[in-house]
């Protein structure tokens, strides 16, 4: 039986961690696309082109129900996507 050196064991663990994080990144990215696509569109009229959309900024109401869940899911998945991307880059460099 061939014995692995310490460096080879560390390399295999790093590759396994990298593969696991990469799969998680792919799953999160697909979920993020789905959640963003499910969000309702915000309609704008011709007046918002001239006013800069100020009525949407100051007249905006807090999202409730399913829209609030989608907004929170978007923030969580976006943050997770960013963190996983940083972790993958760090592992790839080292």
What would you note in describing this structure?
This protein has 94 residues and is mainly α. It has a domain of 62 residues. Helices cover 77% and strands 0% of the residues. It is built from 4 helices and no strands. Helix 1 runs antiparallel to helix 4. The mean pLDDT is 84.
- How would you state the average pLDDT, rounded? 84
Order of helices and strands: HHHH
Structural class computed from helices and strand pairing: mainly alpha
What overall geometry do the principal axes of the alpha carbons give? Answer: elongated
Give unreliable regions as ranges: none
Strand tally: 0
Query: What distance lies between the first and last C-alpha atoms, to the nearest angstrom?
Result: 29 Å
Number of helices: 4
Mind sketching the topology for me?
Elements: H1 6-38, H2 46-51, H3 54-58, H4 66-93
């Amino acid at each position: 039986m061939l014995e692995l050196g310490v460096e080879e064991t560390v390399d295999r663990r790093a590759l396994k961690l990298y593969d696991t994080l990469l799969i998680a990144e792919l799953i999160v990215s697909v979920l993020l696309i789905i959640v963003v696509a499910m969000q309702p569109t915000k309609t704008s009229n011709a007046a918002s082109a001239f006013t800069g959309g100020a009525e949407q900024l100051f007249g905006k109401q807090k999202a409730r129900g399913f829209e609030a869940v989608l907004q929170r899911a978007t923030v969580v998945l976006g943050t997770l996507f960013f963190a996983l991307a940083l972790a993958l880059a760090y592992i790839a460099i080292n």
